[in-house]
Amino acid sequence: MTITEKLAQWLLNATEDPDLGEELRQVQGDPEAVTDRFYRDLEFGTGGLRGVIGAGTNRMNIYTIRRATQGLADYLNESTLPKKVAIGYDSRIKGQLFSREAARVLAANGISVCLYPRLEPTPALSWAVRYFGCGAGICVTASHNPAKYNGYKVYGSDGCQITLETADKVLTAIGQHDYFVSPRLMDFDEAVSAGTIQYIPDQCLSDFVDAVLALRPGNDVSKLKLVYTPLNGSGLEPVRLLLERMGITQVTVVPEQEKPDGNFPTCPYPNPEIREAMETGLKLCDTVHPDLMLGTDPDCDRMGAAVPDGRGGYRLITGNEMGALLLDYICRVRKANGSMPDNPVAVTTIVSTDLATPIAEKYGVELRRVLTGFKFIGEQIALLEAAGQKARFIFGFEESYGYLSGAHVRDKDGVNAVMLACEAAAYYAQQGMSLLDAVNALYREFGFYRNALHSFTFEGAAGMDTMNAIMTGLRAAPPAEIAGYAVTEVVDYQNGSTGLPRANVLEFRMAGGAKLMVRPSGTEPKIKVYLSAVGRTEEEADAINAALADCASQWMKG
After folding, report:
1. For residue 405, which of 217, 220, 229, 275 has the smallest C-alpha distance?
2. Which one-letter DSSP state was computed for residue 365?
3. CA-CA distances (angstroms) from residue 59 to 33, 44, 54, 152, 521?
4. Residue with more model confidence, 497 or 282
5. Rg, Å, the chain Cα set
6. CB-count exposure of residue 204 (10 Å: 0-12, 13-18, 19+)
7. Within 13 A of 81's CA, how many CA atoms are on the CB side?
8. For residues 76 and 104, is the Cβ–Cβ distance under 8 A?
9. Distance CA 238, CA 235 (A)
10. Integer Cα distance of 99 and 191 in angstroms
11. Which helix (H) or strand (E) holds 35?
12. What is the structure's pLDDT at 496?
């Protein structure tokens, strides 16, 4: 079908959600806007679907949700997996609607649904998949993306996001269906009455929080004073429950960001990785003067933190710094209390800080590096579990503010991260240190490892072509030097030489320990450039990264 024919089809058939018809009528006379909505089907991969909410095949709407879910239902019914799916959603616009539409399709295909009755975090969905013995899970979330986005993450029976092999099978099944006729539907209320759709009881979430609490090292955290923001997302209920059970009573929630709101009025980009999202909480810190400020993203799988800087203000801790700090802290306390397992394993990603390497060596921990995406960390936990060695896993982290210290879920867990940050803060406070003091101690011991991330956006159909051309050009003619630093090694993760699954990632290693990695995002129209340097001082390492960033910016001009 041509784009014009697709537009006509959608104008005729997309009538159940009035927002979609109105949108299509408004853009009818704008060829570029119409093309952007219909030039492709929204891509389905290991992260499921993610895109702008709206009308068309390249948008998140009830019809793209139904079609994807019909494909998932076909896959499940052709497999030996349990015919049961857990579904959750966060505070995103149309999140509840999309979760109910997915449940209707599954029910019509004879698949039982365990549906959270209100918004809950992504890790709570990963937990529910295994808690109820499901064959799959769905979480309706766009994580930390801007408000105009929503998404549809699919989880396997192990609680991990689906593998590439599974994603390909589901994608093939999706391709057998149109958007309006072939997806089966059951009335939602009838499915609830029939018991095909069942609401997940509160005990499931309570048990999830208890599983997080079971991972506590056991420091006295009762004196901690916190500021917390759920960034208008799903973290408030489980984090409050966690803090209450830990005995932390001095908690101030950022009022402007307390209630769920998919418009994210105070932080258009609700990502604790960026200062803008945390700014409202940081201003409150100037009044409350907490020991620690914590923020979780809308689906509460990422956590950001700020600590006193010793000069009357607050300093944000980066994802790499928190990952290194928590790795060292877990190793330190587990060694001290005798709970460190034999042959312990920690897992991080290829783009996360190299500071993890000397920390792991210090404590005799095997450090495994995997591709970007927490599902690959979850896979390592599953491999250990399959070998009867689950207890060997002590910690996993990625630079994008994702942390996990147990095997209770197979995804990064913001609730678990909040617990760890509070425990570490209390531990160091007993020694007269802040978390910032602890980070600086690591730098003094191992060197000033500094990391930076730069994202370059390429919107629309032409944007994808530009991204592909940039990656092709770098592969065809890799630079011999970057910012005056000789390139000593080029690692192409797409050619199968690394022992990891093939991935569209290029790594340039330079003399002196600097590193630059280029990776197109799997969920956004962006190329991400990861920079890493180590120096004798922060200033020296930052200067190296700044020089590398200037070169990367030139590359991204195509």
Report:
1. 217
2. P
3. 12, 12, 5, 12, 18
4. 282
5. 23
6. middle
7. 26
8. no
9. 6
10. 14
11. helix 31-38
12. 87
Helix (H) or strand (E) holding 93: none
Query: Which of these, 298, 537, 500, lies nearest to 414 by C-alpha position?
Result: 298
Q: Kindly indicate the confidence band of residue 465, based on its pLDDT and cuts at 50, 70 and 90.
A: confident
Q: Which residue is it, tokens 């879920």?
A: 409
Tens of pLDDT, residue by residue over 353-396, are: 999 999 999 999 999 999 988 999 999 999 999 999 999 999 99
Q: Cα 473 to chain center, whole Å? A: 29
- Paired tokens of 556: 């991204």
- Residue 377's identity, in one-letter code, is I
Pairwise CA distance, residues 280 & 489, whole Å: 43
Q: What average pLDDT does this structure show over 537-558? A: 92
Q: Are 292 and 421 in contact (CB under 8 A)?
A: yes
Tell me the Ramachandran region of residue 338: left when phi exceeds 0, alpha when psi lies from -120 to 50, beta otherwise. Answer: left
Catalytic center residues: 143
Positive or negative CA dihedral for 71, 73, 74, 80? Answer: positive
Cα dist. 239→77, 302, 502 in Å? 36, 12, 37
pLDDT at 523: 64
Name beta bridge partners: 253.
228
- DSSP labels for 204-247? HHHHHHHHHHTT------TT-EEEEE-TTSS-HHHHHHHHHHHT
**Cα–Cα dist 108/427, whole Å:** 52
pLDDT in tens, 34-90: 999 999 999 898 889 999 999 999 999 999 999 999 999 999 999 999 999 999 999
Contact between 42 and 64 (Cβ < 8 Å): yes
Any idea what the Cα angle at residue 226 is, between residues 284 and 210, rounded to 5°? Answer: 140
Q: From CA 529, how far away is CA 520, in angstroms rounded?
A: 9
The DSSP bridge partners found for residue 395 are 346
Q: What percent of the chain has pLDDT over 90?
A: 92
DSSP label of 419: H
Q: Which residue has the tokens 């930052």?
A: 542
Q: What is the pLDDT of residues 450-461, one digit of tens each?
A: 999 999 998 877
